[in-house]
Write the structure tokens for this entry.
Amino acid sequence: MSWTLAATAGGATLGVTGCSDRRTVVVTGQVDPSRAAAYRAVAVRGVERTRQLWGRDRVSLPVRLHLPRSVSQWAEATGNPASASGYAGSTVRRPGREPVVVLHPSAWQALTPEGRAGVVTHEIAHLAMGPDRAAPWWLTEGLAEYTAHRGADDRPGRIAGSALPRLRADPPDGWPRAPADASHSPWPRYAAAWLACVFLADEVGERALLQAYAATRAGSSWERACRSTLDRPASRLHRHWLRWLEDLDEPTTEAAATERQDGV
Ligand SMILES: [Zn+2]
């Protein structure tokens, strides 16, 4: 598949169009064309990875990526406070408009190529999952992150980095909770949500996990969804998850020192 990159005069809009109408990524924003092209390539792979888990029809095309040049442009595009710099990507949904994935301008420097791919795929997974207010936070975010890392060569402990020892030192009583505020890195909470989904996919299978997620989207509590679709109590799964965390490989010293930044 070849792709063409077209920039309007002044660089106000960068449109990236595939050969086929069915596979199109549109990139907007006043950024360097090479950066836009790199993000576009990452998004194309992210669409494929997301489709492999969620199904081909779940990602509506074109996927729209917006790349603000400045933090103030990013805050304006997302509605987030400019201080919330720990969030590299956001999916913005506005009434009457197609959803747009907005990437923080510092994400390019702050993240490795794998990290950028993770952020973009996480957001594309949100596009596939759709607007979601009923499912538990950790399940929605954990599954978006699960989509991003599914099939990765790295072991979970290495991807989690410093979040894993923290989680082991202070294991949650319940399932992971959303970050309380924007003043701390959100990654430890996201990593916990992701690790919960890695465990659940391993324990009950991906299909069953997605069915349980669908049940929560339809209004079921997680506890009810566990009994109805997974045939076991959530409390038992939680106990097994904490035990599973203990058995995970420790991240390397280098990875443990890394404070990862990720999307929302
Ligand atoms: Zn997210």
Q: What stands out?
A: Strands lie at 3-7, 13-18, 25-28, 63-66, 89-92, 100-103. The domain at 1-131 is CATH 3.40.30 (Glutaredoxin). The CA atoms of residues 187 and 260 lie 6 Å apart.
